[in-house]
Amino acid sequence: MALHPKGNGYTSNLGKLRKINFAIVRLSTDHGLPIMVYARYVIYLVPKTFPPDAFSIRQNGILCGLKVRPFRNVSPLINLPPNMKRSNVLGSVDLRLAEANAEISSVVITSSLTAALFKFYMKYWNPESIFKALLFSVKKKAFLRDKKSCQKCINYSKRFIYFLDLIFKNNTKSLYMSEFQLTSITKRLIMNTVLPLKTSQVSYYNFQKNRFFAKIFSSVYSLFEPFRHVLVNAPDYNIVPGLNIGYNLLITYFSVRFMAVYKKIPKNISNFVTIDIYRPPIFIVFGYIALRARTYCNLFFGPYGPVRVQNMIAIPNFGAGAMENWGLITYRETALMFDPEHTSSRDQQRVAVVVAHELAHQWFGNLVTMKWWSDLWLNEGFASYMENRGAGEAEPGWDMGDQFVIEKVQPALELDALQASHPISTNVTVPEQIESLFDTISYKKGASMIGMLESFIGRALLQKGLRLYLSEYRYNNAETNDLWGSLTKITASNDNPLDIKVIMDTWTLQAGFPLVFVTLEDGHVTATQNRFLICEENITETNVPLNDTIGFKWHIPLTYVTNIEPQKEEKIWMNLTNVEFNVDPRVEWVKMNVGQLGFYRVSYDQHGWSHLIQQLKDNHTALKPSDRASLIDDAFTLVKAGSISATVPLDLTQYLMEETKYVCWHTALRHLFEWLQLLFNYPARTLMIKYIHTLVRPMYLKTGWEDTGSHLYKLLRSEILMATIDVGDEDAIKEAKSLFYEWRFNNKTISVNIRAVVYKTGVRF
User: Fold this and answer.
1) Would you list which residues are annotated within the binding site?
2) Dihedral of CA 141/147/152/157: which sign?
3) Which residues belong to any copy of the ERAP1-like C-terminal domain (predicted)?
4) Which of 101, 366, 409, 694 ranks highest by number of CB atoms within 10 Å?
5) CA 354/CA 73 separation, integer angstroms
6) Alpha-carbon distance 114 to 126, whole Å?
């Protein structure tokens, strides 16, 4: 471009053919399903008047010296030349098979592009092989099946041609176009690809006997225009004739192409990595979160990722919140961009969490990919765990460690207490099962498992184990046992070595979690474990224990503190059994599961609950906020299961009139208003409203309506204000209505963190 800015003549056109991206992508399966797909993506930048066919890779010898094909069996060529002016694509797929070492019974071409026109023409070098083409346009599949058994070493090729209209209403999958705001009055087009699970493979090949590797070669054509960016999730290289360029491995189920007139915001960070953020010109991006989160991931995991440029793009209509394409992460606009003056604290935190989540996927999911979907939690669980760590690194004052409890552990415990739950690692055979695994169990229970693992081996050993795991399986596939093996190697050098696989199999290979029941008498503690179910109805159990002989039992890292030393954490193991141990005879209470980092619930006898409740009333700060939140969560949930009296959580929550921590109030209000809903048609509802009002009124007077204070205090204020209005506090309703009318009739701005409360109240009352 610098050599030939005007684009005149053939030489200048070669100069504009300036960027090439290489990627090798993979996907593992078993038993006749696709194993791996190697891919090379190439971007062509050509002028508007120049015919794209002149740059056909098969005709132009400029790239002949690039030797990146590791296998000769399969050579598919996928062409996706979008015409953004006409809003359509006329593309093709060329398939060549040569020197096949396995007998081929069928070849399946799956199109995710809603093709309206299909053409097949085939050329056979072996006339004895006759294929029959069956086209199913509804399912977007074309089956090529040999009438006879295919012979070895067959050579043949075929072309699959399709037409695609890019303008679809409410379509945000596959290759699609949408609009974004270029200026306050001008809109422009954007082209993007989203290839989810069942549509990610534009073509795949079913070889029944042998695993094999295939290579996809795709190209995207673009017309030159100022600020026009064409991106593919692969490293960038300049084309130099005869230059021998290597390749990088990428996973197959995330391939993305992006084309738009966007503004680029480069941000340099350490470890030789650059973050480039692409967004519509009229928007503002605060990229410091991405910078800090990526830097933290580099320091924590080690710089194993090969991506030197991390592109991040804000897209107007994007089905998912974000997609972790390696090197080219795509986001919904609201998941990447925010303005502190116009974005609530809750939404700012969401941006930080989503960005950290996608960056963590560059290691867990991209650098190392699970062998099969049964271990999806290795991707999503780790990313969900790291999202709190990364966001906490970006904003240390947000206390993301305690928020991990209310955002990950508590929701996962709630779902996993159902009989319909499933193990984290579970067998998968059909696409519908795969999609169902993208749930709270894989994400939040998976994250909770890593949090619990860190709690009993320590952060330093966890970091060493994860670095070893990433180093051993980089650019490769792994399964849960591989992770346990790496961690066991690290802990073996410790004074107290642990068999991580034996411990964690009880948590990942069977559904549910334990309820630990604790009694204390004269310094003697007894703890028993049983599976906790929210409703033990007599229905068919679909889950089975890891050991049929002993039933549902776990290796539990039981942590506790006492009233004698409430800041000193002790630990004892419950290895598939109950446990007894002694404490100081002066101990009046023991609080189990410190910080609610263990994935289990705890109940106490009447003596234990009474002393813990009294401690909260006398001095609730003797326990950490996460411990206070866990007591509230356990007490309300145990009532729902019929394990304790309803008076326990009601007595326990009386201390809230002195509570100032967000995590405690968030947990309590969630449960209290759930009870209020359950009492909708009962006389006791009035009493429940009065009780909640008694609790929130003092805090309402403390927080007020001024949108000031720390991030957590702003989160707390919005929840307290909404709760106070929901229970009918006249002063709160009056103030909210006043602010609403000032905004509506006098155009007075409402502070961003109380805006939702005011709007809801104004409409409601």
Assistant:
1) 357, 361, 380
2) negative
3) 589-764
4) 409
5) 40
6) 32
Nearest to 205 by CA among 68, 370, 76, 22: 76
- N-to-C CA span, the chain: 62
* Number of Cβ atoms within 10 Å of the Cβ of 375: 26
Q: What is the DSSP letter of 50?
A: S
Q: Are 118 and 135 in contact (CB under 8 A)?
A: yes
In the chain, DSSP finds a helix count (H) and a strand count (E) of 21, 32
Judge whether residue 750 has pLDDT over 70: yes
The domains of the chain, with CATH numbers, are: 9-168+190-253 (no CATH), 262-362 (1.10.390.10), 371-508 (1.10.390.10)
Report how far residue 626's alpha carbon sits from residue 452's, in angstroms, rounded to the nearest whole number.
14
Binding residue ranges for Zn(2+): 357, 361, 380
pTM, entire model: 0.76
Enzyme catalytic residues = 358
Please give the average per-residue pLDDT across 134-154, as a whole number.
39
| Cα distances (Å, whole numbers) of residue 720 to 410, 698, 727 | 20, 10, 11
The SS3 call for residue 85 is coil
Cα distances from 267 to residues 187, 285, 304, in angstroms, run 27, 11, 20
Residue 25's DSSP bridge partners are 250
Cβ atoms 288, 316 nearer than 8 A: no
Residue whose entry in the numeric block shows the structure tokens 């002195």: 658
| Strand 36-46 relative to strand 213-223, pairing | parallel
Q: How far is CA 322 from the centre of its chain?
A: 8
